Amino acid sequence: MRSILSALIAGIIFGGGLALSDMINPGRVLAFLDVAGAWDPTLAFVMAGAVIPTAIAFALRRRLNRPLFANAYFVPENRSMDSRLVVGATIFGIGWGLVGFCPGPAISGLVLGLWQPWLFVAMMLLGMLIERVLPLRLPSGSIAPRQA
Question: Considering the entire predicted model, what is its pTM?
Fold first, then answer.
């Protein structure tokens, strides 16, 4: 129960931060990507501001035996970059650049009552379903091993 409650609180804080910084506005994100036009650096400041609490969390992680609200840390063991990762990241980047939404801000934007976040989230869920039902037939070999 503690892990669910802590995840809910973290999600509310994350969504609130996205709303407060106006990152749920796809126009703001698209203006950041428009480096040759009316460039808006707000997203760069939001990302830079996220580095500080992340650095603190990573420093604390090294000192703690386990998380505060779970029994163990869940750190991915696979550090290789394969074709599925590259294709997925490419699709994510293209979609983000085209419409200005990524999953976090789109989900946070559902409360606005606009149709665009709802359409984005519906298509995102459809894409996740398609990936589960019709897995992409790419070789699973590593593209380039990552040095630890």
Answer: 0.70
Query: Cα–chain-centroid distance for residue 31?
Result: 19
> Are the beta carbons of 147 and 93 closer than 8 angstroms?
no
Are 137 and 84 in contact by the 8 Å Cβ rule? The answer is no
pLDDT (tens digit per residue) in 114-133: 899 999 999 999 988 887 88
What digits encode the pLDDT tens for the residues 92-107? 899 888 888 889 889 9
